[in-house]
């Protein structure tokens, strides 16, 4: 895709995000999801995955982020000192860094292990220390065994704080438990607010955009028509992006669901870390897990942002009109090959929960109707908090 088309699509994304934000009564912390993300009707895995994903530093939200809050939090705990003094480090001396490396390597190699910190330390002591020093080392460890940090390290490894999900293809995924669950989301959405009307003209909205808003819409989401790797829509993407769109429709139900982390997460340890920049009585100088900046610096720290709310919608119908003029051949190509959707309602056809009807008007404009039935749900975005 050439740079002009890329810029035009970026402006479209920014304009659509601004109109949706205002229409739904949200604020600048709202990040619009890239495409229409169907909410699973059989389990809570979609909600848990979205709650755990680290939001990108853009105004658009990519639910496919590989960075997770729970993963960053695990590393954070490994970078801290226990609250009850430094007796263990003093006793172990040069072996203290060996213990830290052993512990981190053990849990990285055994991610589902429920072994307590004390159990792992006993293994380390019996394998790596002089036998005569083992009793003293165990005594020093036990003095800090009930420190909040060690309790947090045990909690984040406890399997009961995670839930397994099995996809229709048989693939098993294990996710940290969050609220809301699927049942809670359905209940809140059925009682949600609405209706909300959206009347979007990209040409008019783009006139009001600031450069910051346009830059905030930068993402890997550049297409107007998407048919996957085998489809080529470069010329049609350029035509559609340069001509603009109108979108009219109504959402009848919306709910903004607060995200709460399960028992695997202890907020006091997170707060102790973020409030102790450059405090070496909190941060372990011998740990290789990271420092304050690696976790909390804006905008690139691994815990610099987190999802605070998930925005769900149900029962909508929208008419999306491309202002470009299309031939019948182009129309047939779009209708048959744009299997992953048409801007801005993208999703893989196998997972789409909305219906799509593509028509060519008498004047040659492409008119697409998107409809999500009552009782079906989609994630339209999240609200995001900076680390605090």
Descriptive notes:
Helix 1 packs across helix 12 and helix 5 packs across helix 6. 37% of the residues lie in helices and 25% in strands. With 388 residues, the protein is an alpha+beta fold. The protein starts with a helix and ends with a strand. The strands form 4 sheets. Strands 1, 2, 6, 8, 10, 13 and 14 form a 7-stranded mixed sheet that branches. It has a 3-stranded antiparallel sheet with strand order 7-11-12, with no helix packed on it. The protein has 2 domains: 223 residues, no CATH class; 137 residues, no CATH class.
Count every helix, treating DSSP H or I runs of 4 or more residues as helices: 15
Poorly predicted runs: none
Radius of gyration: 25 Å
Q: Count the domains.
A: 2
N-to-C SSE series?
A: HEHEHHHHHHEEEHEHHEHEEHHEHEEEE
Q: What would the average pLDDT be, to the nearest integer?
A: 88
Largest beta-sheet details: 7 strands, mixed
Q: How many DSSP E strands?
A: 14
What's the end-to-end separation, in Å?
A: 39 Å
Structural class determined from secondary elements? alpha+beta
Beta strand %: 15-25%
As a percent range, the share of helical residues equals: 25-40%
Net shape: elongated
For this entry, give a set of tags.
7-stranded mixed beta sheet, 3-stranded antiparallel beta sheet, 388 residues, 2 domains, elongated, alpha+beta, 14 strands
Task: Provide a quick synopsis of the model.
The protein contains 15 helices and 14 strands. The protein has 388 residues and is an alpha+beta fold.
């Amino acid at each position: 895709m050439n740079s002009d088309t890329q810029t035009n699509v970026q402006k479209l994304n920014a304009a659509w995000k601004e109109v949706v934000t205002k229409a739904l009564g949200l604020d600048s912390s709202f990040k619009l999801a890239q495409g229409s993300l169907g909410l699973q009707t059989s389990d809570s895995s979609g909600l848990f995955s979205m709650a755990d994903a680290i939001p990108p530093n853009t105004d658009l939200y990519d639910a496919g982020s590989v960075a997770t809050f729970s993963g960053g939090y695990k590393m954070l705990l490994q970078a801290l000192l226990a609250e009850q003094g430094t007796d263990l480090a003093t006793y172990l001396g040069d072996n203290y860094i060996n213990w830290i490396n052993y512990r981190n390597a053990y849990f990285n190699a055994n991610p589902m292990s429920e072994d307590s910190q004390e159990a792992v330390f006993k293994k380390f002591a019996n394998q790596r220390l002089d036998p005569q020093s083992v009793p003293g080392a165990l005594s020093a460890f036990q003095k800090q065994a009930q420190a909040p940090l060690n309790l947090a390290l045990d909690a984040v490894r406890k399997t009961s704080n995670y839930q397994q999900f099995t996809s229709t293809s048989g693939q098993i995924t294990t996710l940290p438990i969050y609220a809301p669950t699927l049942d809670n989301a359905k209940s809140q959405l059925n009682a949600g607010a609405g209706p909300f009307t959206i009347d979007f003209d990209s040409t008019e909205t783009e006139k009001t955009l600031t450069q910051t808003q346009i830059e905030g819409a930068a993402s890997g989401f550049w297409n107007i028509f998407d048919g996957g790797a085998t489809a080529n829509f470069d010329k049609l993407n350029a035509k559609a992006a340069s001509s603009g769109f109108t979108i009219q429709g109504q959402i009848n139900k919306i709910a903004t669901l607060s995200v709460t982390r399960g028992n695997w997460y202890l907020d006091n340890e997170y707060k102790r870390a973020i409030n102790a920049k450059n405090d070496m009585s909190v941060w372990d100088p011998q740990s290789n897990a990271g420092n304050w900046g690696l976790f909390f610096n804006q905008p690139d720290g691994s815990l610099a942002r987190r999802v605070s709310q998930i925005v769900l919608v149900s029962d909508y119908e929208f008419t999306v009109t491309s202002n470009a003029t299309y031939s019948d051949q182009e129309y047939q190509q779009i209708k048959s090959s744009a299997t992953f959707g048409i801007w801005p309602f993208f999703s893989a056809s196998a997972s789409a929960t909305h219906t799509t009807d593509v028509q060519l008007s008498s004047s040659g404009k492409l008119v697409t109707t998107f409809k999500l039935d009552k009782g079906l749900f989609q994630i339209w975005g999240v609200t995001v908090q900076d680390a605090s």
